[in-house]
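ok so i was messing around last nite and threw this chain in just to see what happens. nothing serious, just curious
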Amino acid sequence: MQEELDIDRVEKIAFVLKTIAHPMRVGIIDLLSQNEKMSVNEITRYLGLEQSLTSHHLANMKMKGVLGSKREGKQIFYFLRLKEVTQIVNQLEDANVIVF
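result:
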């Protein structure tokens, strides 16, 4: 029989999954996995979103520790802080996840 469930561990996993569980956030993760850092404007142009909506998603993921940011002059650049999220996305792609 297994040991008792580690509540902290499963809550942390669920927290990360909830944080990235949005198509645009997965898109942002995909972009940042291919680029060391990107500005809000670059991400907005690539995803075809409004700047305010992109900023909302970026701020949420930054607040929850998935992304980091660095100001360079007048621009803020975002980067993956929790690089393991790319592995999660890749595993789901490899599993040929079917959406109903």
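not much to say yet. The chain has a mean pLDDT of 91.
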